[in-house]
């Protein structure tokens, strides 16, 4: 009899609804999971849940996406060594506040771009040396075109999307797969209270299913609901003189 | 953050605009419990307005973590938002099944406790609450208390079947049943009338599971004709050869979905009568004993996702009462006669023998329970008022998990425990803290 071992998966930003769903999805398929978050010890119940439900090893690890100085040590010390790293880190912030407060804007930029890009970059380096591995970055449709209502967040996501694209390009022949995920609207804690159109809104579990499938098929970039590809194609194609007068 | 949402129960009647929020942690629940006028909502499978918040509704489905399981005792500790379906998915492969399950696996643990739901084994095992070891309850002050069966705490007893009105059930420990397989041995008994059906239940008191489908449109000497379905968990050696190697896994079935609301006329007295007659005839011919998988046996309707839409946009209402043993026959005859006369045939009518149960506020009592469903329309409401009066006249009471429209006076007249519960709630300040549209309607 041969035993199949599934490579460990690191979920960065595991406290979020999408992070939790992603961890469950990979664990259900037999992967060991490592949950990384700030105040990771608070996620003990999630850890127990994943481990009990799916019969896999689940561990917690402390991680702060703003602590760029500690990232090299984090990558060097993490055990077991993850073969798949998924970053679902993100924060929407308050657009109006970000417009007038550089500190607030910087926090959004760092949380959505600087932090996730740097940590995934470090893991990618290690995977490139090993010649194998998968990097998954959860970006956003908001990064496809800057809009008045959320361009601070959107610009950071645009940077992250571009980073992932470049990383994929560089590592394409080094055995490392890079996946960009644009979920569209998702029913999460972050969007609770917003009035979201049903057809365009996914459940966190749907996002997790899409990520799991895309990793297996080695897709490069996905929208979780295919309709978003169409929506964003339209939004991107509107000429700037018209676009600047719209309220989207 | 709260979102505005028009909520209904499973019957899609009544509906109410509610402020809804989905807590993820104990501290969030604690803060929300102090909001006032809140009710916890599980998966929305109560039929009426039990889980429509007075001022705010806590959607507990994000609190669905499995926290521990002891394979030596079968005790599972989990958060209240966990669904029975998830318990089965996780633990049936390890040889465990819920001790008590209602007719759908899509209920939450918290909802099952709050409604003290019953299953086809009530006559021998009691209701869901019998297998609850302890409950973590968040009270009006936002503080969490662990209430144990072993402490004989009255609040624990009121919480089982208390419709979420003692506080927010955060987590619970329940005992699971060890099973050898995922298969059920089902035996069908044909009962040509009500008396035969009731006698059939008495003869089958040793069966683990028993329930009857009853043709509520049959009249005259066929009044109450039923198919009684008995069930036993199959032992390994009883599992079909093809599945014996892994007896705990059964073939998965395709789920079907009702894609749109049926027009109001689709279910009328003729189509329902035809369905009932057909079902009756089908029950006659088959073999007496068959082996079926757990999902088909316990949850035939779960295979059709969104089956509540067959009643159309206006929704439907359930009627379920329990009648004491000594007056059950007269009461059932009166209820079935009134239903058949109104021509408001119920698509699904279920009869079940309850065992004895002595609890603070739970629905079951020793006797018989009858469940009927009807499209929500003025004719139905007139019939239901009539059924209420018949139930009252025979010493019966009503199931709040099904109710959408009882009047407070009828409810209090049927159940003197309601006044005790109301007084207890007032005394402890729980009436302001925890309220549903139903508790407000019934003056609990």
TrEMBL record, chain A:
State the UniProt keywords alphabetically: Oxidoreductase
Instruction: State the superkingdom.
Output: Bacteria
Per its UniProt record, what InterPro entries does this chain match? NAD(P)-bd_dom_sf, SDR_fam
- CDD domains the UniProt entry points to: SDR_c (cd05233)
Where does the UniProt annotation place the signal sequence?
none
A single Gene Ontology molecular function, please?
oxidoreductase activity
GO CC, alphabetical: membrane
Q: Which SUPFAM superfamilies match?
A: NAD(P)-binding Rossmann-fold domains (SSF51735)
Which Pfam families does this one have?
A: adh_short (PF00106)
UniProt similarity note: Belongs to the short-chain dehydrogenases/reductases (SDR) family.
Q: What is this protein called?
A: Short-chain dehydrogenase
From TrEMBL, chain B:
Keywords for this protein: FAD, Flavoprotein, Oxidoreductase
Q: Where is the FAD-binding PCMH-type domain?
A: 12-179
A family per Pfam:
FAD_binding_4
**A Gene Ontology molecular function term of the record:** oxidoreductase activity
InterPro entries from the UniProt entry = FAD-bd_PCMH, FAD-bd_PCMH-like_sf, FAD-bd_PCMH_sub2, FAD-linked_Oxidoreductases_BP, Oxid_FAD_bind_N
* Signal peptide start-end: none
Q: According to its UniProt record, which protein family does this protein belong to?
A: Belongs to the oxygen-dependent FAD-linked oxidoreductase family.
Q: What is this protein called?
A: FAD/FMN-containing dehydrogenase
The record lists the organism as: Alloyangia pacifica
Taxonomy of the source species: Bacteria, Pseudomonadati, Pseudomonadota, Alphaproteobacteria, Rhodobacterales
């Amino acid at each position: 009899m041969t035993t199949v071992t599934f490579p460990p998966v690191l979920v960065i930003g595991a406290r979020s609804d999408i992070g939790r769903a992603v961890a469950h999805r990979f664990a259900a398929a037999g992967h060991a999971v490592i949950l990384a978050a700030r105040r990771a010890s608070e996620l003990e119940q999630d850890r127990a849940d994943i481990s009990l439900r799916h019969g896999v090893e689940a561990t917690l690890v402390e991680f702060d996406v703003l602590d760029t100085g500690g990232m090299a040590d984090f990558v060097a010390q993490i055990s077991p060594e993850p073969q798949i790293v998924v970053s679902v880190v993100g924060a929407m912030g308050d657009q109006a506040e970000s417009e007038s407060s550089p500190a607030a804007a910087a926090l959004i930029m760092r949380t959505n771009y600087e932090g996730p890009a740097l940590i995934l970059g470090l893991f990618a380096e290690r995977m490139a040396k090993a010649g194998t591995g998968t990097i998954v970055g959860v970006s956003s449709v908001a990064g496809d075109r800057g809009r008045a209502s959320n361009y601070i967040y959107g610009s950071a996501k645009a940077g992250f999307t571009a980073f992932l694209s470049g990383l994929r390009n560089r590592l394409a022949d080094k055995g490392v797969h890079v996946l960009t995920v644009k979920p569209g609207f998702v029913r999460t804690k972050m969007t609770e209270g917003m009035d979201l159109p049903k057809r365009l809104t996914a459940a966190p579990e749907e996002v997790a299913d899409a990520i799991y499938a895309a990793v297996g098929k080695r897709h490069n970039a996905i929208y979780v609901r295919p309709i978003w590809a169409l929506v964003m194609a339209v939004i991107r194609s509107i000429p700037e003189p018209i676009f600047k007068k719209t309220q989207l | 953050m709260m979102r505005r949402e028009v909520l209904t129960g499973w019957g899609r009647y009544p509906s109410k605009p509610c402020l809804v929020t989905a807590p993820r942690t104990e501290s969030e629940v604690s803060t929300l419990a102090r909001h006032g006028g809140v009710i916890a909502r599980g998966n929305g499978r109560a039929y009426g307005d039990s889980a429509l918040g007075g001022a705010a509704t806590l959607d507990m489905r994000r609190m669905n973590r499995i926290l521990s399981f002891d394979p030596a005792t079968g005790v599972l500790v989990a958060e209240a938002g966990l669904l029975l379906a998830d318990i089965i998915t996780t633990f049936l492969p390890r040889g465990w099944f819920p001790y008590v399950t209602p007719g759908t696996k899509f209920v939450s643990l918290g909802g099952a406790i709050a409604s003290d739901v019953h299953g086809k084994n009530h006559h021998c095992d009691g209701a869901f609450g019998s297998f609850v070891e302890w409950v973590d309850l968040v009270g009006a002050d936002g503080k969490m208390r662990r209430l144990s069966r072993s402490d004989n705490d009255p609040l624990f007893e009121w919480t089982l079947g208390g419709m979420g009105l003692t506080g927010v059930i955060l987590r619970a420990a329940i005992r699971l049943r060890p099973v050898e397989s995922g298969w059920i041995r089902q035996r069908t008994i044909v009962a040509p009338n009500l008396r035969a059906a009731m006698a059939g239940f008495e003869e089958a008191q040793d069966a683990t599971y028993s329930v009857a489908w009853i043709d509520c449109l049959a009249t005259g000497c066929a009044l109450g004709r039923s198919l009684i379905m008995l069930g036993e968990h199959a032992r390994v050696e009883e599992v079909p050869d093809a599945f014996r190697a892994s007896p705990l896994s059964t073939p998965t079935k395709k789920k079907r979905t009702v894609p749109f609301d049926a027009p109001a006329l689709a279910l009328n007295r003729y189509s329902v009568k035809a369905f009932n007659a057909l079902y009756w005839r089908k029950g006659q011919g088959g073999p007496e004993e068959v082996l079926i998988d757990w999902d088909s046996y316990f949850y035939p309707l779960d295979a059709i996702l969104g089956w509540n839409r067959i009643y159309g946009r206006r929704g439907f209402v359930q009627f379920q009462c329990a009648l004491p043993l000594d007056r059950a026959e007269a009461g059932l005859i009166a209820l079935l006669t009134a239903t058949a006369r109104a021509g408001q045939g119920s698509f699904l009518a279920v009869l079940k023998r309850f065992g004895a149960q002595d609890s603070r506020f739970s629905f079951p009592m020793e006797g018989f329970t009858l469940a009927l469903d009807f499209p929500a329309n003025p004719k139905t409401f007139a019939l239901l008022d009539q059924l209420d009066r018949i139930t009252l006249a025979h010493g019966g009471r009503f199931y709040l998990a099904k109710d959408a429209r009882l009047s407070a006076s009828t409810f209090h007249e049927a159940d003197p425990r309601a006044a005790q519960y109301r007084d207890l709630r007032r005394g402890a300040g729980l009436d302001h803290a925890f309220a549903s549209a139903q508790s407000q309607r019934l003056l609990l």
